[in-house]
Amino acid sequence: MTGPLPPEVSLSALGPRTRIGTGGQGTVYALTEDPRWVYKEYATRFVDDVDVTTLNRFVRLAAGAGPDAETLLGLAAWPTAVVRKEGVVRGFLMPRVPDRFRVRIQLPRGPDTVLAQVQYLLNSDAYLLDRGLHVDDRMRLELLRDTGEALTLLHRLGVCVGDLSPNNLLFSLDSRPRCYFIDCDAMRLDGDSVLAQAETPEWHVPDADAEELATPATDAYKFGLLAVRLFAGDQQTRDPQAARPRLDRQLVTLAGRSLDPAPHLRPAPQQWSDALERSIRRTPPTPPPRRAAPPTGPEPTRPAAARADPVRPVVPAPAVAGSRPTGRGWGLAVAALAAVAVLAGLLSGNDDSPGRPYPTRPVLPTGLLGQPSYPPLPTGIPGLTRPTGGAAGATRYPDLPLRTTLDLRELIPLTRVCLFTDVRVGTGLDRTSTRTKSSVTAVRGFLCEINTDEPDLDDRSRTQLARAATLTKNGPFPVATIIGIRTATGGPQVNVVFDPDGDGSSSGCWRSRLSLVTDDDGYHVGSLSAPTRSYCP
């Protein structure tokens, strides 16, 4: 089909088409006869859920007269025609992404031309150099300026992006506009959505349970998040100070205000305009760096962390918690085993190096008054209380049939458990919410290692224990920082960065997503995703 598009077309009128992409909601096809447009067809399971009235309003907005409609089609793959099959709405047409929003990039499999997703830019300079991308701070500022201007226009038209994330935002390296939105049918028009609103993991607002999604305030929050991560070169951080010194003080302040848990305190993207313009004028372009010539001799031995490709950490979706014996997650599959493990940790202390054996007779630390002092206890573990003095000075734990003078190595093949002396809540999260407090409790009670050689475990449990062992061998972790909490089917998911030094100065932190499950005693860790290296918060 050629010529102007009518507001509705028949699927049969599209002619031959070629699949060019598949997403969570449907499949995108290129039209052989008219390369200006692509067709998004909703997956069968979503067809009945599509709000056809709202989709038609999206189409009418793009067809409206005036410069705003023309500008809209220049910065977004906006729905331009509804597509029906036998009277049923199956999808819509939208503009094909302009070539300037594609980029030639060096991937591990070789060079390729791909959509220029902003996610590529949220990485270190070394990563960008390895990918053949030259992105200086001037370009980053211009991208922010253009994104802010685009959001300002969308808000004026009654549109909220909602799922503003680096997967749905493209960049160009040549001319303005430097930003381009895709997946526009996921946006919200005058409070209405084509399909239910969703958020990309790591790009959710602080309290999705309490805050309405897809509003100017949520867009403002995610715009601030984009600014911080773009200049920090970090996919997960929510700390505005991580963008210093590359982002000037006034912009860092704006970012901090944008990440405020209170929606009404966040500045609109338009309020960034003057500060961005001043910073752009003060920031000259920089020439691309020269890549070092490859060494001619054998590669010297380097630590594993240095050899790792600085690719953004990818967190696989955690497994869905299944049946849980004794009402706990996998980490407490056997209550007695967990209790003994915690007891072992209390007796040996948190600072044992990997492989250090337990003493035959454990020595408890001494407090200010000469009495034994103890690290914080995890909550929700049956029968675990503070020790009380017994006959002849023997130390006993009520409800546990175990004397502390026994050699614990004879009872259980453990090497260490991690008890977090400090669980912190990251910037941008509501510290006072019930969900945050419950997440802190669950993380504080998280066991970092139990017996991974138990022969009766199923494959899923072995996988989970192996993931926990990855954390343990890189610990102990005196600090665990919660950097994100999102609601998911089955229970909250908590993104945690484990700091082995406790001062945030190391780049050797580890990150995992803990899926929480609940019972009568509250939330507990049900499963965790594969731990990945991460920058300390």
From TrEMBL:
Compositional bias ranges of the Low complexity kind: 302-312
Regions of compositional bias (Pro residues) in chain numbering: 284-301
Chain residue ranges for the region called Disordered: 280-312
GO MF term set: ATP binding; protein kinase activity
Signal sequence extent: none
Protein kinase domain boundaries: 14-302
InterPro entries: Kinase-like_dom_sf, Prot_kinase_dom
Protein's recorded name: Protein kinase domain-containing protein
